[in-house]
Design goal:
This protein is an alpha+beta fold. 38% of the residues lie in helices and 10% in strands. The protein has a two-stranded antiparallel sheet. A two-stranded parallel ribbon has the order 3-4.
């Protein structure tokens, strides 16, 4: 091949590499900072200040609906321990559970 064709192929390859790098940088930037939201769509959403609506009650019990412990209900606390140990809140009868 002539030197001109080899040089052209090198330049095209270099341009493609830079386009790929810019594409990756754009994807990373979008993942980190998100996409811009047009202000018109923000104005269409009504601002809910909680007036007139009651807050839904938070769940107070954790119930098992299927399995060997079906029907067991445990109060929701800051800590619920799942495991095979005797002091666990919910016992798991599974050899693979750790």
């Amino acid at each position: 091949m002539s030197d001109l064709i080899v040089a052209a192929i090198k330049i095209v390859f270099l341009i493609l590499q830079w386009l790929f790098i810019l594409f990756v940088a754009n994807v990373v930037r979008t993942d980190l900072f998100g996409r811009r939201v047009p202000s018109s769509s923000l104005a269409a959403i009504p601002a809910d200040r909680g007036r007139g609506k009651k807050r839904s009650k938070l769940p107070t019990r954790f119930a098992i609906t299927a399995g060997p412990q079906q029907g067991v209900s445990v109060p929701v606390e800051p800590t619920i321990n799942l495991g095979r140990a005797a002091d666990s809140t919910l016992l798991l009868d599974d050899d693979y559970a750790s």
